[in-house]
Amino acid sequence: AVERGRLIVRSPPGRSGRDTAGMRAMSVLRLVVHGPTREPVVLLGEAGPATDGARCVPVFLRRPQADAVALGRRSQTDPVLPQDVLVPLLRGLGHTLDGAEITALIDGVFVAVLVCDGGTRIPVLPSDALAVAVREGLPITMAEEILDEVGQPVAELFPQGGAAPPEEQVQEMRQFLSDVSPDDFADPPRG
Question: H or E segment at 59?
């Protein structure tokens, strides 16, 4: 729907940032650079009122999408990025953009979709889905199976939690990322 020349960005029914049917609401905890590869990584954490023991998952991004995530939610004064043309395009076609879903982890590669019009799922690269969701302030959800398979307790990675000074948070994340690579999320050898 269009209201006064703007796209009404809404959550699909039952998806107002809450968990639904095997999907968990997520939020961006941190954006860092993986030391050994120098690749950008966004750390997604379970969203919700109870954060003790919440799990997080690192997702490697492409650099342009990491730049979009780093800028955060789009404002009127921001330069227009490639991701920013999607909403006006959808609006012009009479559609709504509802959110981003990370739906699977196959052979160490995340699978993602953008959800439009309350249920139409469009396959996109995970870094594109996350960049669009962050820029537009849309809900991000992740399949529970992914969290069960590769999720790490936030408290173990960041003992000081969000209250730690930014320099300490960066040091903690560097320590975690120094030993992780995209291959760590591949299926274990079957033997």
Answer: strand 55-60
